[in-house]
Amino acid sequence: MFAKFKPSTPLGNSQAQFKSQLAKNASQLNRSFPTAENSRKKSSQLRQTKLAVCRKDNKLKYEGFVEQAAEIRPKKEFVYVPTPNNLEKSSCKVSVKKEAPGLPSSPMLKPGRNLISLIGRVDFCLKTHKMYPDINAIWNVYGQLLRIIVGKRGEHTLLVRNKDSGPVLQGIYYDFEGDMSTWSPGCFVHLVGQFIGENRLKTFKISQVSDIDWQQQFMRIENVTTYILMQNTVHK
User: In this structure, are residues 142 and 188 in contact, taking their beta carbons and an 8 Å threshold?
Assistant: First the structure.
């Protein structure tokens, strides 16, 4: 019932052309494609193919893959490089605030913090002041009153020394209330003040001392004070 339809292009011719094209490219088709392992080791997984247009039949022609340059990776080696000495020293330094010029860093060396109080008889205080003239001290001097010289504007000069012998100390005191009006030579006194000369004491406070207070252990106190002053001088 139905007539057979013949194609415009004979089947034999198309198969012959296909076989001839395969024959020409047999050498290229027989090449093995790179596996996944080889592609990862040698080059990237995606590779660019070579395609060309045939002049005879204007068809694409496969010519293989584009050769890629092998990537040379540098060998990585662990090299220990020590840090410079300058950086190590700078990291250990602690920032210190600069103090105002003229003020010491130690609080005990600031003005008024090195004040000490010394106790002794007249000869000991005079000798110690001569040995340490720059010491900042409040002197507690015990001695026997020889004479009181009254000056102008309430100034009184007390001549004091050890009992019956020794050098004489001049205690300058301003008595505005008349506390020394009842004092008489020969009594024992206690003077508190600071030296303003070799044997002159600027007196802040005075008081009479009984015979019992005068007989206390001055020798022991003076020896301990001498030892402490010598130790401080050696360590400086």
Answer: yes
Q: Is 196 helix (H, G, I), strand (E, B) or coil?
A: coil
- Please state whether beta strands 116-121 and 137-150 pair in parallel, antiparallel, or not at all (unpaired): parallel
Residue count (the chain): 236
CA torsion 15-63-60-68 (nearest 10°) is 150
Of residues 229, 226, 6, 13, the one with CA closest to residue 121:
226
Q: What does the pLDDT read at residue 1?
A: 47
Amino acid symbol at 163: K
Complete domains list, the chain, with CATH = 28-68 (no CATH), 114-235 (2.40.50.140)
Average pLDDT of the residues in 53-75? 71
Q: How far is C-alpha 74 from the geometric centre of its chain's CA atoms?
A: 44
Torsion angle of alpha carbons 199, 203, 206, 211, nearest 10°?
-20
